[in-house]
Write a structure and sequence with these properties.
The complex is a heterodimer of chains A (137) and B (171).
Chain A lengths: L1 E2 L7 E5 L3 H13 L3 E5 L2 H11 L3 E5 L7 H9 L9 E5 L4 H9 L4 E4 L4 H11 L11
Parallel strand pairs in A: 2-3, 2-4, 4-5, 5-6
Antiparallel strand pairs in A: 1-3
Helix pairs in contact in A: 2-3
Chain B lengths: L12 E2 L15 E2 L4 H7 L5 H9 L3 H27 L3 H17 L3 H15 L6 H23 L18
Helix pairs in contact in B: 1-6, 3-4, 3-6, 4-5, 5-6
Classes of the chains: A alpha/beta (137), B mainly alpha (171).
């Protein structure tokens, strides 16, 4: 787990098992003023988010041991995190992927390769509101 | 399929640069006059739109650190993919290719990204006979990509020792 340094903006967590992907999201989010935490696995994310109460969780889908969908289901099982928006950061974009993300409790899909402009738009959108209880918008 | 070489690269305008170290453009296709030849070559290898967007969205220090990290880690990942293909461990290949593909896409390594997409597709559609030639292409493009990044970011090229691991094309 890594934590950003001096920013005081809304707290964003990104979970990805690929270090370069985390670095890209971290650099973009921190440059825009967000407070950033990184986790390299679903289990690390679960232990982190209960302590820091983020405004947004960005979840890679394809990760070893616990994928992003399962991580999202476990986040949604924690009462305090029920209204925290979860956006999947993934190259998966079929209807089945969307359905699975929705049923897992996700709120958004941000497609890889990451476009920094789109990423910041979505971060800005979700850090200014709570997640709807019925899943994806 | 040809993704490398100057023949297929679009004509580039000679305009002043805005960018990291003055070496690459804020808009795709705008290459410093002094490195125009390299720019024409690199236009088929690197996505300058993606690189420029990334550069605009973060601090110069972070941008450089990300390029450095990619240059350090990607050669070993390419070697791993060629080794996995050579030993016919296709599910592991799929995993490795998927991971590297995302990074290449985000960092504008477009030729590598396209070949990794082809490797994923070959495995998902059960066409392993194409993987040998795709592995060869991946290694070649790794070298071309490091060359392009080194030219544009004043870096020393990393070693890529996957050639010995390559299966015969079509194997």
């Amino acid at each position: 787990m890594s934590q950003s340094t001096s920013n005081s903006g809304p707290v964003v967590v990104c979970v990805d098992d690929v270090r370069e992907n985390l670095l890209v999201v971290q650099a973009v989010a921190e440059w825009a003023g967000y407070t950033f935490y990184a986790a390299s696995s679903g289990s690390e994310c679960l232990s982190l988010v209960t302590r820091i109460m983020p405004r947004l969780i960005l979840l890679d889908v394809q990760m070893p041991w616990m994928d992003g969908y399962e991580t999202c289901r476990r986040i949604r099982a924690i009462d305090e995190l029920a209204a925290v928006p979860v956006a999947f950061l993934t190259a998966k974009k079929t209807i089945d992927d969307l359905r699975e993300g929705m049923s897992a409790g996700g709120n958004d899909f941000i497609l890889k390769p990451v476009d920094p402009t789109v990423l910041l738009e979505r971060i800005s959108y979700w850090t200014t509101r709570r997640a709807p209880l019925n899943g994806m918008n | 399929m040809t993704r490398e070489g100057a023949e297929s690269a679009p004509a580039l305008r000679r305009e002043p640069l805005v960018g990291q170290g003055g070496r690459f453009a804020i808009e795709a296709g705008v290459i410093e006059a002094g490195v125009l030849d390299a720019g024409v070559l690199d236009a088929g290898v690197l996505d300058f739109h993606a690189l420029a967007a990334l550069q605009k969205a973060m601090s110069p220090r972070s941008f450089r650190a990300i390029i450095d990290t990619f240059m350090t880690n990607a050669p070993a990942q390419i070697e791993a993919i060629t080794r996995l293909i050579a030993t016919q461990r296709y599910q592991d290949t799929l995993w490795q290719a998927h991971s590297l593909k995302g990074t290449c896409g985000s960092l504008g390594a477009s030729a590598l990204h396209a070949t990794l997409c082809d490797i994923e597709s070959a495995i998902r559609t059960e066409r392993p006979e194409t993987l040998g030639s795709l592995a060869q292409m991946l290694v070649r493009q790794g070298g071309t990509t490091w060359g392009a990044l080194c030219r544009n970011f004043d870096l020393a090229p990393p070693s890529l020792n996957a050639t010995a691991l390559l299966p015969e094309a079509g194997a």
